[in-house]
Amino acid sequence: HDDSEFGKIPAPLLIIRQGIIAGISDCALSILGDRAQEHYTGEKIARIFAPIQPDRRRAEDIAGSAIRAAEAGHPVTDTVRIVRTDGAERDVILTFRQVSSDEPGTILIGIDDTLSLKTEIGKLHRLRLREESFFQKNPALMFILDTSYRVIEINDAWVRLSGYSREQVLSMKLSDFTVLSRTGETVEVAVR
Known about the structure:
Elements: E1 13-17, E2 20-24, H1 26-32, H2 56-71, E3 76-83, E4 89-98, E5 106-112, H3 114-137, E6 143-145, E7 151-154, H4 156-162, H5 166-170, H6 187-191
Antiparallel strand pairs: 1-2, 1-5, 3-4, 4-5, 6-7
């Protein structure tokens, strides 16, 4: 078997033969924060997540169980925490699957790194909800304009105190409003 081209596979994969890493794709290396395949090839699979286990033997036992189950035809998927070479910890999903019954002892491991992305998206979503709540619940009259001075968002106080419906205000431009009195600079100065 030639594993020299394995690194070029555009997916985060490892190939394991008899419990030893035989190949690792560049995509998998980037998740691990590394660039050198030689840091992994020839090593036991526990190498990728042993740093988080206080006992290297425990990491080897976990990897060994997943490999044995995959060899028996039972793919194993589990969430593990890995430690990148830069020291950052990252949760990933590893899926162990036998390559084929013609190649006993050969396991393909896929790394799904979307957990960290899902976590970040969740944080952004919660932040957006908090900002939206601050904007909507603020007692001050607030609105947001686009670059052509069209109203694209208004808060609840604006709707409650202006006498206009939300839809009416959202169909307006800044020039549709009449300013009865003002202090300070004009809107044009403020947006510069």
